[in-house]
């Protein structure tokens, strides 16, 4: 059978449509899959359209940070009437954090570390694996930690973003304050409910709305900068350094709030494959960075001119008549930001499955021809507030609603926000440093000099956010710990299962020689025996011979491999290898960002020289059921693996096999 994913790179990928009816007609389709014709979208779309899309999708999260970042940093100082030292110091820290973390680290460095055009922490992990040439447990743990922390970030972002925007209702009319939580909950539930339909129908609105949003940020900021032009002095980093020296008691707390300004920075790298490096860079330098800096400067200038506005410096920037428009625009922007991180959670879950960190999950593609438009019900539930890994969309929604109800305000949620983001960024930096060294791009001492400033700053931010563990920072830590434990248990279980199977396995070469003089009856037709290890005989084949005493005149050992590259080329897709006698080996390869369909891929096998009669073909699946046999902690890990394996998607649907041509043979394996 095809094993559940293992982190060797030969693990299975995801289904194209989890509810698609499969039949023999799938074999006869000659046209290539959507994934087979995947090309760099920057060649097919205009650079302007891609830049517009990047503004809406890539920068939706970081674009909503001005709503709360400056306010929370100023509040953390504990100063009743903030003066130039506090305002200019915080503004300087905000500006230089954007420059160092986002511009230098992500835009100038990590966007160039792409895996066939794809980015994100899991893509970076595969680059390190490829460069090292072997699996490293410490590197594996970095990837697991980064993916787990991202899950915590994904649960908090929709909650704090939408809640911070809807809180503006209380400024329009104080009597509306009691409806802030209900309105927030309604918006979030509606957002998650539409995930199943996909975002393609509304994605075209994301860019234009965010253009208006960033324009409003820049316009409001520029308007208020004129009140106190002295805020331009914040470009001098000495103001930030002096503030930290003069306020040692609250410096760490303030830094934790300052880091809120770069939440969403990871999206620049994660969405690299959707838009390409150039559109993301153009959007950042041409619109996003200037708008963010101008807005922060405007908030600072307004607070210096009117200290009473410090309590809600963002919404106080607009005249009373324009407040409803700003609240509506902010709400739309935060919904877009939330959509971006939800989509990112889906993509992260798919990558985790591909790399062997999670069991098979049902993946639904919501836009024809766009592999990135996916829906994973398991992830949706995870973000909503559960633990069951098989219902992502609704678990995600449960978590978000629980956070809103538990914390009640964006200020309270801010304490829980930063630690997940800083943790993910630190781990990304470490993996990036390993890639620079292992790939030979830099020698270790040079890489250390390049990475040290960024890593040092991020570690300081991480330490400052760690102080908020008791104030809500425990939430992403717990989420990350649970997800990390689940992924570790699955990875460990797949390794144990594989080791157990290999002990009892028969090498294919030995088996082929044995069958030459066998008395087993040969019957017409083609049998495909699916296996995750092309070097050993599938258990289904052994059981078929043992119990049925027959062998098909053409017996094909079929392996589905997931490459450590995001997309397989046409040359890599299929390999057909004669093994002797009636045996052949067929290998179908897909990238870890692809969603393979075995039935459709048979057209490639035909072109590669495999001859078979569709109506006389049968697929044999070997089902292995794990049985936990460990003790203590190992027994707990084994039981988690057994439970997860039962939640995995049905392999027939998962690999898109024709349902009326599948025979399953099961066995129990002690791990």
Q: Quick gist of this model?
A:
By secondary structure, the chain is an alpha/beta fold.
Name the average pLDDT. Answer: 78
Q: List low-pLDDT spans.
A: 1-45, 381-392
CATH architectural designation of the largest domain = Up-down Bundle
CATH topology of the largest domain: Amino acid/polyamine transporter I
Walk across the major sheet and give the strand order.
5-6-4-3-7-8
Radius of gyration: 27 Å
Oligomer: single chain
What is the 3D shape? elongated
Q: How far is it from the N-terminal to the C-terminal residue, by CA?
A: 18 Å
What is the count of helical runs?
A: 25
> What's the main sheet like?
6 strands, mixed
Superfamily at the CATH H level of the largest domain? Amino acid/polyamine transporter I
Strand proportion, as a percent range, falls in: 5-15%
């Amino acid at each position: 059978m095809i094993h559940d994913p293992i982190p060797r790179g030969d693990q299975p990928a995801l289904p194209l449509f989890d509810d698609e009816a499969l039949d023999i007609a799938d074999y006869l389709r000659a046209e290539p899959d959507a994934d087979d014709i995947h090309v760099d979208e920057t060649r097919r779309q205009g650079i302007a359209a891609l830049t517009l899309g990047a503004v809406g999708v890539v920068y939706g999260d970081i674009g909503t940070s001005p709503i709360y970042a400056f306010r929370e940093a100023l509040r953390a100082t504990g100063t009743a009437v903030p003066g130039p030292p506090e305002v200019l110091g915080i503004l300087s820290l905000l500006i230089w954090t954007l420059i160092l973390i986002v511009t230098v680290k992500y835009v100038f460095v990590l966007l160039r570390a792409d895996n066939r055009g794809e980015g994100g922490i899991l893509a970076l992990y595969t680059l390190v694996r490829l460069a090292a040439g072997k699996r490293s447990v410490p590197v594996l743990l970095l990837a697991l930690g980064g993916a787990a922390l991202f899950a915590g970030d994904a649960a908090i972002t929709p909650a704090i973003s939408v809640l911070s925007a809807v809180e503006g209702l209380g400024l329009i009319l104080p009597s509306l304050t009691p409806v802030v939580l209900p309105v927030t909950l309604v918006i979030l539930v509606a957002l998650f409910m539409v995930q199943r339909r996909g975002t393609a129908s509304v994605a075209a609105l994301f860019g234009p709305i965010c253009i208006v949003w960033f324009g409003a940020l820049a316009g409001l900021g520029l308007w208020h900068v004129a009140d106190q032009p002295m805020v331009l002095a914040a470009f001098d980093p000495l103001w930030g350094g002096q503030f930290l020296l003069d306020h040692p008691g609250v410096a760490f707390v303030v830094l934790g709030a300052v880091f809120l300004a770069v939440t969403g920075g990871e999206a620049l790298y994660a969405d690299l494959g959707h838009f390409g490096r150039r559109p993301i860079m153009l959007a950042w330098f041409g619109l996003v960075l200037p708008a963010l800096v101008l807005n922060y400067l405007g908030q600072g200038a307004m607070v210096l001119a009117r200290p009473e506005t410090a309590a809600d410096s963002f919404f106080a920037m607009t005249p009373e008549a324009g407040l409803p428009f700003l609240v509506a625009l902010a709400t739309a922007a935060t919904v877009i930001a939330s959509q971006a991180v939800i989509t990112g959670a889906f993509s992260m879950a798919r990558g985790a499955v591909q790399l062997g960190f999670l069991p098979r999950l049902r993946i639904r593609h919501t836009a024809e021809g766009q592999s990135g438009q996916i829906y994973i019900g398991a992830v949706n539930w995870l973000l909503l507030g559960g633990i069951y890994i098989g219902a992502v969309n609704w678990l995600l929604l449960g978590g978000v609603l629980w956070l809103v109800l538990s914390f009640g305000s964006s200020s309270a949620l801010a304490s829980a926000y930063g630690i997940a983001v800083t943790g993910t960024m630190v781990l990304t930096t470490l993996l990036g440093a390993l890639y620079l060294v292992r790939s030979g791009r830099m020698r270790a001492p040079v890489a250390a000099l390049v990475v040290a400033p960024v890593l040092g700053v991020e570690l300081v931010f991480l330490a400052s956010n760690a102080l908020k563990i008791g104030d809500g920072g425990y939430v992403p830590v717990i989420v990350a710990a649970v997800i990390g434990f689940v992924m570790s248990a699955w990875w460990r279980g797949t390794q144990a299962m594989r080791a157990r199977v290999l002990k009892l396995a028969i090498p294919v070469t030995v088996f082929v020689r044995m069958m030459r003089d066998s008395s087993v009856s040969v019957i017409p037709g083609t049998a495909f025996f699916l296996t995750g290890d092309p070097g050993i005989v599938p258990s289904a084949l052994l059981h078929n011979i043992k119990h049925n005493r027959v062998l098909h005149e053409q017996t094909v050992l079929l392996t589905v491999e997931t490459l450590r590259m995001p997309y397989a080329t046409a040359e890599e897709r299929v390999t057909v290898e004669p093994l002797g006698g009636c045996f052949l080996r067929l290998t179908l390869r897909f990238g870890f960002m692809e969603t393979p369909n075995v039935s459709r891929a048979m057209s490639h096998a035909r072109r590669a020289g495999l001859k078979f009669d569709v109506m006389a073909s049968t697929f044999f699946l070997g089902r292995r059921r794990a049985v936990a046999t460990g003790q203590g902690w190992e027994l707990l890990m084994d039981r988690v693996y057994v439970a997860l394996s039962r939640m995995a998607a049905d392999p027939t649907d998962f690999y898109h096999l024709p349902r009326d041509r599948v025979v399953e043979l099961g066995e129990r394996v002690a791990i």
